Amino acid sequence: MEAELVTLASAGAAALVQHMVGDAWEQVRGRVAAFFARRSGQDVAVIDGELDEARADLVDAERSGDEEARSEALAEWRSRMRRALRNDPEAAAELRGLLDELEGTAGEAPRQVVETHNSMSHSTVNGGTVIQTGTIGTFNNGGGQSA
Asked: Which residues are paired to 146 by β-bridges?
């Protein structure tokens, strides 16, 4: 499988797992179930159930502190995405469109990219931390939590 499709499968799995534990799951689940159903020949309701079961397992695991659960879910869904992409040439375009939609899923805060470039000159720091600030607010670190 070419590298671009492997990367796309990885991005799709990461977005899916992130949304499984997010607020917009109800909106995402149906679209993802339809994507997989078209490629597997299974009924959408069957895949919908599989997705809900995977979500419940992931939420429970994260609540109990199981740090490996997210990695396992990523591996499972990356594998399924890779099979879908390998078996259907049209799947790549649909998955790209789905990922674009997931970026702006209603009910979740829009992503904001902030670049900061600081420099110091004529200063000496002896083993301490330097903090330069203007306004300190919250930011989304991509994990769905504000810090």
From this structure: 140
**Cα 111-115-116 angle, rounded to 5 deg:** 140
Average pLDDT over residues 111-140: 60
CA atoms of 76 and 66, how far apart (whole Å): 16
Find, among 108, 127, 110, 95, the residue nearest to 20 by Cα.
Answer: 108
Alpha-carbon distance of 116 to 22, in angstroms, equals 28
Backbone torsion region of residue 65, taken as left when φ is above 0, otherwise alpha when ψ lies between -120 and 50, otherwise beta: left
Question: What pLDDT sits at residue 114?
Answer: 47
Alpha helices in the chain (DSSP H): 3-20, 25-40, 44-63, 68-87, 91-103
122: helix, strand or coil? coil
User: What is the overall mean pLDDT for the chain?
Assistant: 80
Residues 86-107: tens digit of each pLDDT = 988 789 999 999 999 887 654 4
Please give the pLDDT value at position 76: 93
